[in-house]
TrEMBL record:
This is Diaminopimelate decarboxylase. The active site is at 353 (proton donor). Homodimer. Transmembrane segments: none annotated. The keyword Disulfide bond does not apply. Residues 46-289 form the Orn/DAP/Arg decarboxylase 2 N-terminal domain. Its cofactor is pyridoxal 5'-phosphate. Residues 292-381 form the Orn/DAP/Arg decarboxylase 2 C-terminal domain. It comes from Ilumatobacter fluminis.
Length: 426
């Protein structure tokens, strides 16, 4: 017997009297009828609860929402209103945050190759701090400050601590062989601190590290805290940011620490090490991933005797590239019977012109799944819409926030005309 694990659904998911899944008091059937499919449905109260949990675990002003996980104006404003600051990695992300009414001083700018324009934008808007990633970036800031583009920026230096995170190699960032940060082992980190402390172009206020994404082993974060605390101790800087990357369960059998448990591990480690700096973190996936499901319409069922059955939906790698990029696993279910026994096995695929356009390599659905059914994948709130594309000129899906029986459209569905918005040729 294979039934969808309840903990993979948003907090406020339930089953109505007619058997259909509801989220935030809204029927998934009604949402699909109103907004079409594919469709991202976010449980707004789930988002708010996770933001509040992060703030409670780390203290007001110490929890930065990693906006790359999922960003739109509504999400930026929600995180800020619930007491979080924002971690942005590009000028575009900073622009959306500011457009949402988030003050620039509540933002931290990341990026391993920030352009002069992005650095200028950050300095002119007076972001809270810039997380400096390289000596070349320090050169660029020197040049900008020679032009007197704004006040001396507060900076953190991103350190590569040499801690291997137990995650996919593409999203592991703390090892010595990384495009990110100043390497601790080869002495670059110390040289960067010495240069920044001498520089009149920057005000060094702290150090930063990030060991990877979707990390399930809490002890990895404790190890990073130990390495960073030992390195930072002689400098007595006011801030120490230990990044994000806390994992979430995606499939049956997976478990991950909660935000509160993560906070306890880091606090205990820092207390034991005598850390006096203010300790910050940057959760993203753990705020938004489980908050959302993606709803599709099942369009083609193709059984190939002796091989497998293909279930084709109206989205695919354009709204969730993680399975293609990382081999990520997901579950699938029918919103009309969310906890029905899933005895039919097959491969859930998208509509793109790629054999690799696979959402679930080993999907399980109820035996009565039929063409026209709605099919949903849970835990798609992070790195789905934000990493989406227009491949095959597919229009990207809308996003709705649901709460207390009301559905709020926060990103509309793209139109065919949107596809031509930047096309100036003939």
């Amino acid at each position: 017997m294979s039934v969808l694990p309840r903990h993979l659904l948003p907090d406020n998911a339930a089953v109505a009297d007619d058997g259909w899944l509801t989220i935030g008091g809204c029927s998934v059937r009604d949402l699909a009828a109103e907004f079409g499919t594919p469709l991202f449905v976010y449980d707004e109260e789930h988002l708010r609860a996770r933001c509040r949990e992060a703030v409670e675990a780390f203290g007001h002003g110490n929890a930065y929402y990693a906006s790359k996980a999922f960003l739109c104006k509504a999400m930026a404003r929600l995180a800020y209103d619930e007491g979080m600051k924002l971690d942005v990695a590009t000028g575009g992300e900073l622009h959306i945050a500011i457009s949402a009414g988030v003050p620039a001083p509540a933002c931290a700018l990341h990026g391993n190759n920030k352009s002069v324009a992005e650095l200028r934008m950050a300095i002119e808007h007076r972001v809270g701090h810039i997380v400096v990633d390289s000596f070349d970036e320090l050169d660029r800031i020197d040049a900008l400050m020679a032009e007197e583009v704004g006040p001396t920026p507060k900076v953190l230096l991103r350190i590569t601590p040499g801690v291997e995170a137990h995650t996919h190699e593409f999203i592991s960032t703390g090892q010595d062989d990384s495009k990110f940060g100043f390497n601790l082992a080869n002495g670059d980190a110390l040289r960067a601190v010495e240069r920044a402390r001498r520089s009149s172009s920057v005000e060094l206020v702290g150090l930063h590290c990030h060991i990877g994404s979707n990390v399930f082993v809490a002890s990895s974060f404790g190890k990073a805290a130990e390495v960073m605390a030992n390195f930072a101790a002689p400098f007595d800087l006011p801030e120490l940011v230990l990044g994000g990357g806390l994992g979430v369960p995606y499939v049956e059998g997976e478990e991950a620490p909660t935000l509160t448990q993560w906070g306890n591990v880091l606090r205990d480690a820092c207390d034991a090490l005598g850390v006096r700096s203010r300790v910050g973190v940057e959760p993203g996936r753990s705020i938004v991933a489980v908050a959302a499901i993606t709803v599709y319409t099942l369009g083609t069922i193709k059984p190939i005797p002796g091989v497998r059955t293909y279930y084709s939906v109206d989205g695919g790698m354009s709204d969730n590239p993680r399975p293609v990029l990382y081999g990520s696993g997901y579950e699938s279910f029918l919103p009309r019977a969310p906890f029905a026994d899933r005895t039919a096995e097959g491969r859930l695929v998208g509509k793109h012109c790629e054999s690799g356009d696979v959402l679930l390599r080993e999907a399980r659905l109820p035996a009565d799944a039929a063409v026209g059914d709605l099919v949903a994948t849970p835990v798609t709130g992070a790195y789905g819409r934000s990493m989406g594309s227009n491949y095959n000129q597919i229009t990207r899906p809308p996003v709705v926030f649901v709460r207390d029986g009301d559905a709020r459209l926060v990103i509309r569905r793209e139109t065919f005309d949107d596809l031509l918005a930047t096309d100036v040729g003939h």
